[in-house]
Amino acid sequence: MPTTVLVAGFRGSMGQKATAMIKRDPELELAAVYSPHLETTDPAAYELPATTQVFNQLSAMDTRAQVWVDFSTPAGAFENARFALEHGMTPIIGTSGLSDDQVAQLTQLAKEQHQVGLLVPNFGLSAVLLMQFAKQAAQYFPDAEIIEMHHADKKDSPSGTAVNTAKMIAAGRKQAPETVENPVETIPGARGANYDDVPIHAVRLPGYVAHEQVLFGGPGEALTIRQDSFDRESFMHGLNIAIKQVNRLTGFAVGLENVL
Fold first, then answer.
1. Side-chain half-sphere of 219: how many Cα atoms within 13 Å?
2. Which of 12, 152, 172, 175 lies 20 to 30 Å (CA to CA) from residue 47?
């Protein structure tokens, strides 16, 4: 039997790619979609199969979906994930912007519900590898900065990928980075955001999709690691793996590498 999937945020750029991928795969079934801003719940209005349920309210939701894929908004993703866990669905969250406290709450809820779930900062395999390589490099180059570049309509800054990269750099360090005494910003914010002594610079421009580079500096040398996602279709392979492998987890996890 195919795995039944609900896609929240199905009308967005990633949501549309996700629904198309699910419909193409005979091992998956698009059981339902959800968006709180819909005027009609007729699947024909969205060119969806007649068997796909369409919901615009969580309170009205009664679905046979096993997996909840979330590409909604930072404001809605946390409550969506809570709802999924409380109603027997496995959440796979592709929406960034969740706080550490919210992730901790979802981790605890999954434990209480004897459920599993997955928060994925980036479904691109190149991005997953970049984060792994950055963690390794941080052992030898503790001084690092991140530049992340995304499309102009991305709401949150910095990206979830950049924050997760910073976490992995911090975890990989064996010594503290050098600190500048009394740094001066002639324009506030010039040095970017700071996560665990990793400066993060966010770029939002038309024409970009998702790109990240990590710059490491050491005495007399430097290392740059970069990944580029030129099309959102590149994320679908990782999403497909996540849907099919998420039940291998034993709780709530962060990062696609947990199911690779």
1. 0
2. 152
